[in-house]
Amino acid sequence: MNQSIDAVVAGHLCLDIIPDLSHIEPETFGSLFQPGRLLEIGPATFATGGPVSNTGLALHRLGLRISLMGKVGEDVFGDAARRYIASIAPTLVSGMSVSADVDTSYTVVINPPGVDRIFLHHPGANDSFYADDLNYELMARSRLFHFGYPPLMRTMYENGGEELRKLFRQARATGVTTSLDMALPDPTSASGRAPWPEILDKTLPYVDIFLPSIEELLFTLRRETYEQLRQDAGGTDILPRITPELLEELSDALHEMGVGVVLVKLGRRGLYLHTADAARMAGMGRAAPEDATAWANLTYWAPTFQVQVVGATGAGDATIAGFLAALLRGLSPEDALNMATAVGACNVEAADSLSGIRSWDETRARVQAGWPKRKESLAASGWRYHPESGLWSPEA
């Protein structure tokens, strides 16, 4: 009972319902999904989703000792979610909270090949998750605490984010390394109207590692920039318009708020890493790098590995799991970035969030065997490519 663990993963948890749409061609998607039409599809895959499941179970599959802390209802979907997690490892459900007063959260994932995903989401029990729902005694025996998706949890963004700040302040007081992942709010929802710059400003002083996607980061921190980029892109994909200069500006703002490690997910374009000085890196809690100097003042852009994409469900969460697993195993920042992108790449080779994840040794061997990467040139921005690591960094 008093055995130490590697990580506590908490926050949003839901049941994912993923219909098989693999036979649909990307160019016909818009014309097929029309009101009043019956569309024949394949069987559905059922899995748990959200960071408690996606990141937590990926860390478990990567060989780490994990405790999961999520909340479900006493209903059919709640039973299905707990059975799914228990089928992977029975001990992982012991930290789950079950309440008769709430409905289990669920998401219908519309995920045809070659088309960005659409989520039909009911927040359910996640809207009643509080800081006091966490087991801080267990957290005190963990090296890392990862929390995900506060924009999809009403209690985390109400009242100017006071509950989120309380949660991270109490976690940080245990000496654990703290990690935060985000989600993209619905702009028309209460979450989309929440004062996210204020919420981040009061929460990030207690966060060691911040791992948003570029869309999430811009929406919550620089909403005007996000809207302008979307307008410039015709309301579609903003990734081609993301520059190293913009990422550096955003990262500097996050470091000023107190974050030690900024890791921005860039979808098919990879990962951007920006770290603080050695003093901040050394003060990151029990999972801090042994050599803080080697992790200090770094800026890297890591391209993705080449894969045949089947689905992107949970890809960002898997990428986070790869990075956190590498940090917990004491890898260098360069190796950590490559393992993060490798675990994310394995994830998209399957339709659901977990089937594509391989063991740590298998994934590491695949990287070391010379797994080719997608082309991503930053030379025009004055960056230099490092063939030994497959990463880009700014010219000195």
Keywords, separated by commas or semicolons:
single chain, 396 residues, alpha/beta, UDP-N-acetylmuramoyl-L-alanine:D-glutamate ligase, eight-stranded mixed sheet, 34% helix, 19% strand, globular
Structural overview:
With 396 residues, the chain is of the alpha/beta class. Helix 8 packs across helix 9 (223-232), helix 13 packs antiparallel against helix 14 (333-347) and helix 14 (333-347) packs across helix 15. The protein has one domain (5-29, 40-394): UDP-N-acetylmuramoyl-L-alanine:D-glutamate ligase, CATH 3.40.1190.20. The chain has helices at 29-32, 51-61, 76-88, 136-139, 154-157, 162-173, 196-203, 214-221, 223-232, 244-257, 278-282, 292-295, 315-328, 333-347, 360-368; strands at 5-11, 14-19, 44-49, 66-69, 71-73, 97-99, 106-110, 118-122, 142-148, 177-181, 209-210, 261-265, 271-275, 299-302, 383-386, 391-394. Helices cover 34% and strands 19% of the residues. The chain is globular. The chain starts with a strand and ends with a strand. It has an eight-stranded mixed sheet with strand order 4-1-9-10-11-12-13-14, sandwiched between helices. Strands 3-2-7-8 form a four-stranded mixed sheet.
